[in-house]
Amino acid sequence: MTTAAEKPGPQIGPPATHLLFENDDVRIWQQYAKAGTTYPFHYHDYDYVLFYLTDVLATNSGTEDHHRVWDARFDHGEKLPESPAGILTRAQACFYIPGSGFLSPGFHNVGDTDMIAPLIEVKRPRRPDQEGIGYARTDALVGLPPRPGCIHLLENDRLRVWQTALAPGASDGPRQRLDTAVYVIDGSRLRILEEGPAGTRTREEERASASGLWLPGGVRRQLTNLGSAPYRELEVELK
After folding, report:
1. Among 47-51, 79-83, 193-197, whose mean pLDDT is lowest?
2. Is the fold of 10-137 the same as that of 144-238?
3. Where are the chain's structural domains?
4. Full DSSP string of 43-101
5. 160 within 8 A of 193, measured Cβ to Cβ
6. CA–CA dist 130, 177 (Å, integer)
7. What's the CATH class of domain 10-137?
8. Does domain 144-238 have CATH number 2.60.120.10?
9. 60: pLDDT confidence band, cut at 50, 70 and 90?
10. Distance CA 38, CA 134 (A)
């Protein structure tokens, strides 16, 4: 007979499915969980930003305390009577979640839509004035088509979150940038203008969809979409 102490614990997975980029400051992931699948328990040791690219109907596989936290964060009245039990989170919902270091529950994707979501972890240690920053969520873009230009989506004392969407030929406004983690949602070829202490320079680069990159701050930067398809990215600036 197996005792409670001998029973195997839950399977432990990474914070998300695909690690796209890592340096000393951030890790940029893509979470991809197919409809009908279960994602395992995992640890969130770092503060992170989560941005949904698809609608997701999900339940979690944790304890009663896990369910209480899950419901508080994800249930905004989006339970559909004709759907299976679960909480529906809409595309373009954006979350800031402090890293706890505790074991987070797995979840079941019980809907018929794959979950696709960039997840950006902030490895840079908090300064003393950044301790105690709490959970935040915004649904400001939910249900809307991509808004042109740079949209200031979420901010606290730790970071700023932007979404930039550029039609072919369009440019965003030049803006002073902090150190930035970028997840490319829809890729294209860009012209990048930078103005900083070392002068002004222009370069062109191809950015692939579902890729991650790091851009040092301290410059004014402007993007122009040189491609034939819309370009879109999520930016997390570190304070």
Report:
1. 79-83
2. yes
3. 10-137, 144-238
4. E--SEEEEE-SS-EEEEE-S-HHHHHHHHHHH-SS---TTSPSSEEE-TT-EEEE----
5. no
6. 20
7. mainly beta
8. yes
9. confident
10. 28
